[in-house]
Amino acid sequence: xxxxxxxxxxxxxxxxxxxxxxxxxxxxxxxxxxxxxxxxxxxxxxxxxxxxxxxxxxxxxxxxxxxxxxxxxxxxxxxxxxxxxxxxxxxxxxxxxxxxxxxxxxxxxxxxxxxxxxxxxxxxxxxxxxxxxxxxxxxxxxxxxxxxxxxxxxxxxxxxxxxxxxxxxxxxxxxxxxxxxxxxxxxxxxxxxxxxxxxxxx
Length: 202
Prior knowledge:
twelve-stranded antiparallel β-sheet, globular, mainly beta
C-alpha cells in the first residue's frame, strides 16, 4: 500500500493542485499554504540569479491508490500575484511586456503523464498555459515524506491530518510562451521550483 500511495502522490508536483474526475476514489488533499512555495528564477545578465514567487493559487488532489498513473494534477495560479519583493518590477510584470494580467489573469498546469524514476522520484509531464499559449513541461518530483502529521501532538488543527511533502523542478524557455523581452540579455531559461506540503483528513 505504501508503494502505491507513493506513486499516486508523485503526481502532486506542484505545485500544484490535482482535480480528478468525479468518479475517482480516494481522499482529497489540499495545499498547506503556510508550508508551500511556487517560485521561478532566472539568470540576470550573468550577474546574479533573481527569483519571484506565485502567492495566489488554489486546488486539491484526489488520490486513487488503485490507479495512481491516472491521477490528474491541475493548478491555477493568478498572474497578478507574482511577487519579486520589488514593487516597480512587480508592476512591470503585470503589463503587456510580461504577464499581461489584464488579458491573461490565470496561469495553469495540467498533468498528462506520470512516470516513476525511483523509489521516491518521478517525472510528471503536463501542459503549462501562459499568456494563452500551451506547451508541454516535465517536472522532476521527489517525495520527501508522508504519513500522520508530525505537528499533531502540538497543534490541534493538525490532529486529524495526514501530510505528504514534495519537491519539484522544471526548466522552461520563456520565449516559447511569448515572453521575449530583453532576450538574450536576460537568458531564455526559467527554473520553476515547487516545495509543497499537502493535507488530508485521516
